[in-house]
Write a structure and sequence with these properties.
The protein contains four helices and seven strands; from the N terminus they run H-E-E-E-H-E-H-E-E-H-E. The chain has 171 residues and is of the alpha/beta class. The strands form two sheets. A five-stranded mixed β-sheet has the order 3-4-6-5-7, with helices on both faces. Strands 1-2 form a two-stranded parallel ribbon.
Length: 171
């Protein structure tokens, strides 16, 4: 007999729309709407200058824009491709990027990319995603690639633990 909670602990539910409290913090950090939401959908409330939907295939398009790129990717097995795109957009295009993802530090994508992230916020408590009847069954984190780590820490300091990764093998 399957549990009613089973979809919450699997990759079956990939879309977790960003809650208003997260967006308020994001807008406070960037001073208004974000420049690009490459993971938008019909029920998203993210205010952005530009948005890509699943039909646009945000992974294949350039994220070069004026302003912050805010990424709340589908929470499935393909999340690593989105994190790779976040990193590439920062290092190759100079984009400032924040991604909202499940706070899971054991997947390969996290181990591979975390050492080159600028900062990470481990959100205190569990988020209640837009339209959710209760809090998510997993913790969340914000991943930051950008040139304003002090601003990031200041803007999000009351929302959880901020950390700056050290390169693996670094001293």
């Amino acid at each position: 007999m399957a549990s009613k909670l089973e979809p919450l602990f699997s990759s079956k539910n990939e879309h977790w729309n960003t809650p208003e409290d997260v967006l308020s913090a994001i807008y406070g950090f960037c001073g208004g709407p974000v420049g690009l939401d490459p993971c938008s959908n019909e029920t998203s409330i993210v205010k952005s200058d530009r948005a890509f939907t699943i039909d646009d295939d945000g992974l294949s398009l350039s994220w070069d824009c004026d302003g912050l790129v805010f990424v709340n990717p589908p929470y499935g097995r393909g999340i690593g491709a989105w994190i790779s795109k976040c990193e590439d957009s920062y290092f190759f295009d100079g984009s400032e990027v924040i991604a909202l993802v499940p706070a899971r530090t054991d997947p390969k994508w996290f181990q591979d990319y975390a050492p080159r992230m600028t900062a990470i916020l481990f959100w205190a408590g569990r988020l209640r995603f837009l339209g959710g009847k209760s809090s998510a069954p997993f913790p969340s984190m914000l991943l930051y690639w950008g040139d304003r780590p002090n601003r990031f820490r200041f803007a999000f300091r009351s929302l959880g633990l901020c950390a700056e990764p050290l390169p693996v093998g670094g001293s």
